[in-house]
Amino acid sequence: MIVIWGTRTAGKTDQREGQYALTRFAHVYWIPLFPVSAMWVTRDGVGHQTKMSGKSVVAGYARTWGPIFTAAGICGLVSLPVAIVAVSLTALAWAWKDVSGESAKRKSDLNALAFGTRCEPKLLPGELADGIKLELDRKWAVISNGQSPDEVARFGTDDVERAATAYGLLRLAALKLPSSQAREAEGHANRLAEGVRDKLALGPGGPYRT
Fold this sequence. Notes:
There is one protein chain. This protein is an alpha+beta fold. It has two domains: about 5-95, no CATH class; about 100-195, no CATH class. Helix content is about 50%, strand content about 20%. The N and C termini lie far apart (about 50 Å).
C-alpha cells in the first residue's frame, strides 16, 4: 500500500489584490493533520514568513475536514449536530477567503501603503516588524512636520503618505504597548483609515517592498 504524505499549503484567507495568508500543513493523502509554518503571499507565490494565523489554520482544516464530516453525517456515521457544525465551519471558512467589508479593505490597503505587505501587523515576525518600524521611523522624521502619529490621527491630514506612515507606526506600536494603550493606538489608526477612504492611490511602496 502506497501512503502519500508530506506537506502542502492550504487555508488561503484575507485575499486582496493578489495577496493572502497561507498555512503549510503536514498531510496524509492531502488531508491536513497539523500546521507546520505560515506565510503571507505578496505576489506570484512569493512572500514572507508570518506567525501562525488562527483564521488560516481553521480554514485549512474546515475546507477539507468539513466536507468529510458532512458526508459522514449524511451516511449516519456521525451525529446530526456534528454534521451541522461541519457545514457551518466550512461555509465560514470559504467566506474568509477574501477581505470583506469596506473598513477591512481600507486597512488592507493602508497596510500595503505603510508596510509594502497587506499582512496584519500582529502576524509579522518580530525581526520583520522591527525592520519595517525602523524604516517608518526614518521616514516619519522627514515628513512629520513636528507632529506625532496620534496627533495626525486626531487632527487629520490630506497627505496620504503621512496618513499611511502614521497609521503604520501606530499599528506597530500597539503590538508592544499595554492593552489599554494598545487599544488607544489601534483607535487612532482606525481613525486614520476612516479619514483616507476616498484618497487611497496604491503603489508598490512600503519598507517590505524595499
